[in-house]
Design goal:
The protein has 10 helices and 8 strands. It is α/β, with parallel strands linked by helices and 287 residues long.
Length: 287
Amino acid sequence: MNTIQYKKENVKGVNIAYREAGDPSNPTIVLLHGFPSSSHQYRKVLNQLSNEFHLIAPDYPGFGNSDFPSQNDYQYTFDHIAETINSFLESKAIDKYAIMIQDYGAPIGFRIANAHPDRITAIVNQNGNAYEEGLGQAWKTTKEFWSNRNKETEKALLPSFSLEGLEWQYTHGTRNPENVNPDTWHLDFLRLSRPNAHAVNLDLFYDYQNNVKLYPKWQQYLRDNQPPLLIVWGKNDAFFPESGAQAFKKDVKNIDYNIYDTGHFALEEDGNDIIEKMRSFLNKNVR
């Protein structure tokens, strides 16, 4: 097991917490987490790949151990979070890197990649969507919220923040729920129980519709730049089913395609196999 360091970097008045492991002289992999998680979701990747790669995993504002500024002091949109994470990487003088994306990590990572295509060496995609055909049945309530935001449509989404709802997000679609560490959803529940956390995350749920509008732009980025792409996708994800993974084949030529019989957080159940796929892919494409 390699040493992981737990650090913070001030980015325009917001302290961004991040985990870092490995020799900075090795190729850098930026690990972008999803909802409702944090850099904690990449603990296995940081432990197992840091002998060959430099790994850095930031927590977004309002997530993990980063600052949680009020909505008056920080605009919780995907545009702004991507801007913050890009500024974080620039402040660390990280200007050439692969990205690993999952869930929220996809809209954040694709914004950065689209703005700075020359910086992206490769993409590792674990259930990070960029196609409308990749939006599963679990989006029904959120789409109703997009159509008409009011107290009733907000209330319909609140179970997502409950302990039971968070557990479901981690265990739904797994072969065996006992393969998933329960610390994951308990940590997320503690963070989502902070004052104003529900309001901030509802703002992000609402803003997610702007990601869908940008899908054609991100698809054009893929066609134009052809980044090497590793797909490691949990096919039983109720939010982003396998159809979302298949869609990338339309636009990317150099694609290493791997589907797992698990759910939304595929690293929890199939981490060892996924990490070895990453090792082989990254050694081939970025070393």
